[in-house]
Amino acid sequence: MIRLSSVAVVAAGLTLSACAVLKTPDPVQTYRFGTTPAFGEGTAQGSVPSCAPTGVNLRRVEFNAAARGDQILTATGNETAYVGGARWVGQASTLFEDALQDGFATGAPCLRVTSGPLTRNAVSLTVDVRRFETVYSTPGAAPEIKIAVSVQLLRRDDRAIIKDARFDVIQNADANRVSSIVAAYNGATAEAVRKIVEWTVQEVATMPPGDDTPGTPANRR
């Protein structure tokens, strides 16, 4: 059974004597996700079509405000909480973006993916992670990990939308334990990354001539 800590913070005034005893904080265990490869041996990788070398600017990934930090967000109906005593090793938004960069490197070698400012003759890819949470049907049950991502391909010159899509991923945790929840986040993230990479490759490959030309070499962070 995992312990949840309420999202709300309650402040209480305390009268301290000359000698105050401070309670030792509960230990916090850190975890990471994004370690399950989206492409390669041992994955349920899909078929990634080949394409001409094309520049794609990956903009900074937008992330749900409640989930972008290092706490593990949970939801039971309309109530939300964070898993007590457990944290991500870094910001969830950063870990997800790192996993996405790795997914493009291994699953789409035909794309020259850059980050940061737009480069010459490259299309732009925006990724908005709108949901990234542990969902309980009832308190204490084995939860589901739910990820919802919206993506857009934009033209460099006028930022017009070329294509857009939304991907929803659900991964069941084996049990209501932190280790099982982290494993489910790994699987769900790999599936979300795989969907984004495959969609990007397919859409870039079908763009009319003139809408995409080779970009600059990859500038990995």
Keywords:
221 residues, alpha/beta, 10-stranded mixed beta sheet, 2 helices, 20% helix, disordered C terminus
Description:
The protein has 221 residues and is an alpha/beta fold. It has 2 helices and 10 strands; from the N terminus they run ββββββαββββα. Strands 1, 2, 3, 4, 5, 6, 7, 8, 9 and 10 form a 10-stranded mixed sheet that branches. Helix 1 packs across helix 2. The chain is elongated. Mean pLDDT is 81; it is low at 7-20 and 211-221.
Compact overview of the structure:
The protein is 20% helix and 32% strand.
Q: What's the SSE blueprint?
A:
Elements: E1 4-6, E2 29-31, E3 54-58, E4 62-63, E5 71-76, E6 79-88, H1 92-107, E7 111-115, E8 123-136, E9 144-154, E10 161-172, H2 178-205
Parallel strand pairs: 2-6, 3-7, 3-8, 4-8, 5-8
Antiparallel strand pairs: 1-6, 5-6, 8-9, 9-10
Helix pairs in contact: 1-2
Q: Briefly note the structural class of the backbone.
A: alpha/beta
Strand content: 25-35%
Pattern of helices and strands: EEEEEEHEEEEH
Number of helices: 2
Overall helicity: 10-25%
